Amino acid sequence: MRFLIIALFLVYTSVAENIMCYQTAEKNATMCPDPAEGAAAPTKCFGPTFSVLGGVTNSTYGCGECPTDAAKDACVTCDGAADSACNPEIITADNYECYDYSYNAEKGVFAIQKDPITCHRKNGTDVHCNKPGVNATETYTSNDKGCGPCTNTTAVAENIMCYQTAEKNATMCPDPAEGAAAPTKCFGPTFSVLGGVTNSTYGCGECPTDAAKDACVTCDGAADSACNPEIITADNYECYDYSYNAEKGVFAIQKDPITCHRKNGTDVHCNKPGVNATETYTSNDKGCGPCTNTTAGVCVACDETRCNSAVTVTAFLLPLAALLYTLF
Ligand SMILES: *[C@@H]1O[C@H](CO)[C@@H](O)[C@H](O)[C@H]1NC(C)=O
Ligand SMILES: *[C@@H]1O[C@H](CO)[C@@H](O)[C@H](O)[C@H]1NC(C)=O
Ligand SMILES: *[C@@H]1O[C@H](CO)[C@@H](O)[C@H](O)[C@H]1NC(C)=O
Ligand SMILES: *[C@@H]1O[C@H](CO)[C@@H](O)[C@H](O)[C@H]1NC(C)=O
Ligand SMILES: *[C@@H]1O[C@H](CO)[C@@H](O)[C@H](O)[C@H]1NC(C)=O
Ligand SMILES: *[C@@H]1O[C@H](CO)[C@@H](O)[C@H](O)[C@H]1NC(C)=O
Ligand SMILES: *[C@@H]1O[C@H](CO)[C@@H](O)[C@H](O)[C@H]1NC(C)=O
Ligand SMILES: *[C@@H]1O[C@H](CO)[C@@H](O)[C@H](O)[C@H]1NC(C)=O
Ligand SMILES: *[C@@H]1O[C@H](CO)[C@@H](O)[C@H](O)[C@H]1NC(C)=O
Ligand SMILES: *[C@@H]1O[C@H](CO)[C@@H](O)[C@H](O)[C@H]1NC(C)=O
After folding, report:
1. How many CB atoms lie within 10 A of CB 81?
2. Is residue 152 assigned to a domain?
3. What tens digit of pLDDT does each residue of 176-225 get?
4. Does residue 296 fall inside a structural domain?
5. Domain extent for 63
6. How many domains is the chain built from?
């Protein structure tokens, strides 16, 4: 008899421990009220759901099963507990907008959709948009129509960065126009010691169609740095060129000096034929810059403007050496 009383007491206390649910009527997570006479105590909580594209569904929160008049798929239940509500209130933060893309099979590109998509988010989560990267294949579709972070970690890439004349800086390339592919290359001018910097602007994508021939080149873009950094030059300088005079068997200096270009941070150098230069030898870059032929005595370099003049050539006995060369 005593055991039966204890057993009944235990049953009573376990039943009496009501679950806790967030309840719209209470505007809080509180203990569910005792069931009506003859009804079972609730074991579940109900409430709305959240999705990035739809936001919070139109449902109230409460104890027990979803109301019978709840809109289809607007209400879900969860297993109740005594110490916390399994259906906490869904707090949202301000909506934001992203763009969706669809694959245009005819043009072979991902085309941006004209109207932005409204994206919902829970309080405490950040704003994120996603879009197809350069490696997305035609079967790719954006996660949540462009709302939220990337879920495909292989296909997606950030915009590349290029030096852009319009921005006067290396900055991220703008999103492509509707129907256009995101750029994967940067373009810009080239540099040569004899020609300097070619006449080209800098930017994202392929070279402009009106660019002068050979004035513009492209490079493979990257997300973290511009592959087409601005070419900064320093003051030009001058050097002399030489040509082999077969009749006299010597290298003859050319009358007019050559204008040499250089990038900022590089030194002035001139070069000229040395005593061991043979008749087929030609100066590197018409005498501008350092020697490139490292065979002993073939090339001599110096480091001031016009430093490779005729006066220094005679000091190397070049005419004599050349004369001896022709005798044998
Ligand atoms: C909600 O409940 C918590 C504890 O459960 C309480 O501290 C708070 O004051 C309640 N808020 C409202 C609005 O009833
Ligand atoms: C939300 O649901 C209630 C009742 O189910 C309905 O009266 C109301 O019109 C709905 N609101 C929206 C915005 O759908
Ligand atoms: C939103 O989240 C922040 C921290 O993430 C919190 O401080 C704030 O109280 C939350 N707002 C609401 C309405 O719950
Ligand atoms: C595209 O895929 C290739 C090959 O897997 C990879 O080398 C390249 O880095 C990818 N491009 C980007 C922008 O991630
Ligand atoms: C990611 O996208 C690539 C290219 O569109 C596709 O081949 C791959 O199956 C995708 N991966 C996942 C996990 O969806
Ligand atoms: C160029 O960009 C760098 C960082 O990317 C920034 O520090 C610098 O101020 C920018 N310069 C101009 C002229 O916009
Ligand atoms: C550079 O190119 C632009 C456009 O291609 C042209 O208008 C301009 O005359 C060119 N300048 C020189 C110095 O060639
Ligand atoms: C040229 O290079 C020097 C160091 O090599 C640097 O301090 C300077 O800022 C550069 N000038 C320009 C215009 O980039
Ligand atoms: C360097 O110059 C010598 C003499 O003119 C020539 O025989 C040799 O082929 C040159 N070497 C190179 C790497 O051009
Ligand atoms: C020219 O070549 C010869 C034979 O290889 C070598 O002995 C001599 O040192 C060279 N001359 C100079 C100035 O390096």
Report:
1. 13
2. no
3. 766 667 788 999 999 999 999 999 999 999 999 888 888 999 999 988 88
4. yes
5. 2-90
6. 4
